[in-house]
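Folding Task

Wanted — backbone structure
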Amino acid sequence: MSTEETITSWSEKVAGLGVDMLVDHGLIEKAELERATSIVAEEIRVRLAIGDYPPPEKRE
C-alpha cells in the first residue's frame, strides 16, 4: 500500500469513527453519515498533506 493509500484509508477510518459518535449523540442525522464522513476524511487528508501531524510523544 502506498503512503497516499495509507493516509486515505486511515483518514476515512478516523472520520467514520468521529462522525459515528456524532450520530450516536444526536448531533448529526444518520442519513448524513456518509456525506459527513466524506467531508471529515477530506479535511483530515488535507491537514496531513500540509504536514499537520501531532508532535512526537515525549518519553522520559
Observations:
- The mean pLDDT is 93.
- The CA atoms of residues 39 and 50 lie 17 Å apart.
- The longest helix spans residues 3-24.
- The chain is about 65% helix and 0% strand.
